[in-house]
Write the structure tokens for this entry.
Amino acid sequence: MEVIDARTLGPLRVRLAVVITLAAAFIGLFVAQDVLWQRGRAPANLFEQAVWVLTFVWVFPVLPSLLACVGMLLHRRPRQASLVPMSIPVCFRIVSRGQNAEALHETVLNIRDQMGRHRLFPFRIEVVTDVSVDLPPGNDIVPLVVPADFHPRRGARFKARALEYARRRSDLPANAWILHLDEESRITASLIAGVRAAVMEEEESGRFRIGQGAILYHRNLRRNPILTLADSLRTGDDLGRFYLQQRLGVTLFGLHGSFILVRNSIELQSTFDVGPAGSITEDAWWALVQMERGRRCRWVDGYLVEQSPETIRDFIKQRRRWYVGLVKCVLHAPTRLRYRIPLGITLFLWSVSWIGVLAMYLDLVAGQSTLPLVRIAGNFSFAAYIASYVFGLKMNLDNLRRQHWLLRPLRLPLYALQVVLIPFFSIIEALGVIYGLLSPDSGFHIISKPGRSDTVTPHAWVHVRAAAAVACLLAGVIVASHLPPTSPIAQAVNRLPIVTGIASAQVSTSQPASIAPEPLPAQSTGTPAQGAMTAAAFQGGVMLYVDSANGGRQDLAWSAQALFQRLAGLGANSVGIAFPVFMAGVTASTVYADPEQTPTTGTLATIVSEAHRQHLTVLLRPILDEQTLMDPQGDWRGSIRPADQARWFTSYSQLFRQYAQIAQANNVEAIDVGTELNSVQGDATGWRMVIAAVRAIYSGQVTYSVNFDFERLGFADALDFLGVDAYYPLDAPLGASVGQLEEAWSPWIADLTRLSATSGKPLVITELGVRSEPGAHLKPWVWYTQAAPDMGEQQRYYQASCPAVSHAVGGLYWWLVTLDSPYANALQDTSYDPLGKPAEQAIKTCFSRWLPPFTAGRKE
């Protein structure tokens, strides 16, 4: 007596590793996407919208992925019973065309060798071929040569024809069991033990279920590593979905052509004369018929070892044959529809899998956003896909005989290589489906599987080069999409004729003469209020502040879309996008974008795109961050003192060239080149240099925002309009009414009128607002208090300020909102954000009623 063991997914630590791998892959995909896609942007044209729609295909594999995970987690250790030989015979039936005599010879010797070591039952070997083959001599071999004139009544072809001939001619007793093998199959000690255990259980129960187990593909790992790793997915699938179906006892996903364990009495009652339609995947057809007849299936512990295709061409043709054959099974198998539906669903998911792969790579190039639910579903499915590959490989390696070249330290690199190659594997798997869709050939392609050899084949180097080419292409796309606009490579790409042509087609050839956005097209879905504001040449907007490289949102595009839809509903026709840039201190001579707090190019592009989709024009506002400059001495952005002011202007100019490129590339309507920089505003030469550098790249409108206490700007003539941050203190009592607040604006309206006259430019209030707390109108610029909430104070300020400034400005932006607006506790929030508060209705009233008084009274 002896005990034979094999490595399985049964141990608790292995199943725990499955869970950890699945979770790590799931989380890792989110992290990788956030790095590569910068959380995405909305589709901007018809092509990108089509790609966005295609991403919904990622939801489809969720169910089979879930079933695969459940199957892997259901594994338990095989029962360790002592293996006493049984008297029931087992026949190893090998079917081949006979064209690969070497492979047949090795398979026969393998069976004899393993059975000689583990003689757990009487056996014989039946070799069924189309032509006579010289086999090793011995009484245990029964050759069966299919006559050329053998034609089953229904017209079975290929392997089905040979199986039907063997079924009719074999003299096996009815109580014998048959293990179906391919010409290159290799049995193992664990398979022999598993077959003996399964046969004993079925004979004792009298259920006579059809058995199948897992197949390994490690035979040619050294000589053909790429495709061997690719076929690890099949082992993972056996241990997942197929294990689950065997536990349930129903062949939901069909059966493999080899490693089918069936009692001869059952096989004699059925037929392999499945006709031409069933002859391509006769195993799946036969399994459907058996299920229709009430037969059930079971899992057989142990492993059979097969061989992967030698070439990519054979790999693709093999998948094509499976796909075409399964289609015929679903359409023509003589069973009730309910038995074909599960296989039909599986086939449908396989049919559209290439669309999901295509969408994945197109989305990688475009860097678009996806619906959160789609992203979650897609990442879970892909994580399960990764886990199937990894644990399929693990079982192959764990059950591989020790080789001098495969040392234990090589395992981790093999796992890493397999994960890296998954994009390549997904492409060639998808090509098999596409080939089947385009060329549904009805033939039975025999792939080349030579005999044993340790020589690395020339095909292997072709596979390595193909995989490397795919990896380099994807790496190139990722690197190129993350280059800063000023990098030499990005500039060289931008100078390519094709890129220049696309850019020129996207950028408007002319800019509007006024500070207002261009009129909405007649077919626009913009609100009437938006249309009225646009026709009045007025910028009515809200300022959005973004202080995170990726927008601070997992669903950036959708958060921006929801926010801008809300603003458009209030009647806004513009939005300002403000974000921080930094100095190391008030005396620093350089200005920089922080990698964590300054939005990236992709983030800004996404937000701008979403604004344009809602018919909102955009004012881009890089603002020197104030919180990093404030100190006990009262310093702020308006009191910076660069040690080298000329160097500061050079650095500032270089940074704003980057934002000018972003603005130009994304059709931004206006850019603000500075905000409240009082202490350096007197250097007109330096600012003219900044403005000239921006205009050399950007063809839109340029402004500068002064603080409310500034009197004159020496470079206003270089601007298209002048911005002002209107935090004027209003001399009105605590709890002042709307009328009192409006009256308190009077002296400041005169100041705005004077500023417009001295600058010779239209004015736009680029910041206007107060916190929702008592007395906020007294010092609107104070943002760091912790007073109790007062929603009425903010609402009355908005109601008073809107009509008060109407005759002095050409637009205003309420300060401010974020991508998290409105907050869940908005009515307890004391910040400037008006959304979700009574002040929000005041904005809507303001924008909806602004047109009549402004068209008549606003200064032109």
